[in-house]
Amino acid sequence: MKSKITENEKTRVDVKLILDFFHRHMMHHAMWFAQVQQRLGKEKAWDALSSVYDKSMEIQTRRLSKVLDFELDDGLPAPLIKLSEEKRDELKEALGANWLANDGIWFQAVEFSEDMAKAKECNDACWGEFSPLEAWSIKKLLGLSENPGLEGLKQALEFRFYAFVNKQSVAEETENSFVFRMNDCRVQSARKRKGLDDYPCKSAGIVEYTTFATAIDSRIMTTCICCPPDKHPETYYCSWKFEI
Questions:
Q1: Cα–Cα distance between 28 and 113 in angstroms, integer?
Q2: pLDDT band for position 3 (50/70/90)?
Q3: Which CATH number, 3.40.50, 3.30.870, 1.10.150, 3.30.1380, labels domain 83-244?
Q4: pLDDT in tens, 128-140
Q5: How many CB atoms lie within 10 A of CB 89?
Q6: Is the pTM above the cut of 0.85?
Q7: Tens digits of per-residue pLDDT, 58-69?
Q8: What residue ranges do the domains of the chain occupy?
């Protein structure tokens, strides 16, 4: 006869279920966007997302504040607002690192079940979808205009996930262009510490940076200066030129 579940075991199952609910919610949200995009087209999907984001975020935040008993400050969770700048920076870095770890886990899942070529194919395609989404989110967050130019792009690059886990810089600025460099890359640095060659990320990078830049401003053109497997200086792993 199976023993009765203990209170501690029930608690742990409940907590796992709650965390899994967050995951299901996230996946359902993404599936809705994908299906609207497939059936109605990209433009209508982005329009729908603009409406859904604001309404859904307001409802979710308000409901969770009642259940978890935290105050709202102009619609934002007061406990997060009360965090010190240092703690907010730690939280942003942790969220960025979690995103990057999840990306790597997905890559390995395909690589180990199929092969490296299939994993790279999926990775590049994913960047083609994610970079415009990240650009859209940042433009919304910062209130950028439809075509904010190179200054808007420079500002947006500071709010990407990568900006909180890697070290980056802007150089060679002119009126119509600038060069962006990834001085330290968490993934490549980890490989270097293990004595491994650089991961050849150029194909993904071209998709990633090109689609991000054009999503910020459709007039911006992207040129890859170098990106692994290309040779690069010790001071940066990849470099990209943006120009109008």
A1: 25
A2: low
A3: 3.30.1380
A4: 999 999 999 999 9
A5: 12
A6: yes
A7: 999 999 999 999
A8: 1-82, 83-244
**d(C-alpha 183, C-alpha 169), whole Å:** 7
Q: b or e along 50-82 (b: 16 or more beta carbons within 10 Å of the residue's beta carbon)?
A: eeeeeeeeeeeeeeebeeeeeeeeeeebeeeee
8 Å CB contact between 81 and 73: yes
**Average of per-residue pLDDT values in the chain:** 96
Please classify residue 201 by burial: count the beta carbons closer than 10 Å to its beta carbon, then call 0-12 exposed, 13-18 middle and 19+ buried.
buried
